[in-house]
Amino acid sequence: MTSPVRLGILAAVIALVLDQATKMWLLFGFELARKGLVSITPFFDLVLAWNTGISYGWFSDQGPVGQAVMLAFKAVAIVVLAIWMSRSTTRLATIGLGLIIGGAVGNAIDRVAYGAVVDFALFHVQIAGKTYSWYVFNLADAAIVVGVAALLYDSFFGVPAAKAP
């Protein structure tokens, strides 16, 4: 039987590899920057967006010092999450933490390699002639969201922790 920590590490590696492979292919194979917006379905497009900030583009104008501070903060967060993952007792929480770690590392690699996170997925809907769009995101972001959802589910519906006497 596979230990929960191994499942968490596997989830992190899979999230990281899929994220980076997708970004590399879209940047250098598909050449998304040259193609601009590519409509895939009536509600989903591929579009290249360079996110120099954090979630939703917050703090995008912080410059090189701000980028270094964000990268250092992210490194500390990854270490804390890895410690939490190593101590986790449930598979779902460990996998969730692995997904968060893999996504965080994937976006950190972008910051080091390009100075910004590569975002490319754009969902949108048209209602009464007006288009409503979600923020542009990537697979690392999706892994983080799924990881957080797994942690929330585990905390609310998982096996209750043993109560201290």
Automatic annotation (TrEMBL):
The active site is at D119, D141. This is Lipoprotein signal peptidase. Belongs to the peptidase A8 family. The gene is lspA. It is found in: Cell membrane. It is an enzyme of class 3 (hydrolase). Its EC number is 3.4.23.36. Pathway: Protein modification; lipoprotein biosynthesis (signal peptide cleavage). One of its GO terms (molecular function) is aspartic-type endopeptidase activity. InterPro entries: Peptidase_A8 (IPR001872). One of its GO terms (cellular component) is plasma membrane. NCBIfam families: lspA (TIGR00077). It catalyses: Release of signal peptides from bacterial membrane prolipoproteins. Hydrolyzes -Xaa-Yaa-Zaa-|-(S,diacylglyceryl)Cys-, in which Xaa is hydrophobic (preferably Leu), and Yaa (Ala or Ser) and Zaa (Gly or Ala) have small, neutral side chains. This protein specifically catalyzes the removal of signal peptides from prolipoproteins. Keywords: Aspartyl protease, Cell membrane, Hydrolase, Membrane, Protease, Transmembrane, Transmembrane helix. Its main location: membrane. The chain crosses the membrane at residues 6-28, 65-85, 92-114, 134-153.
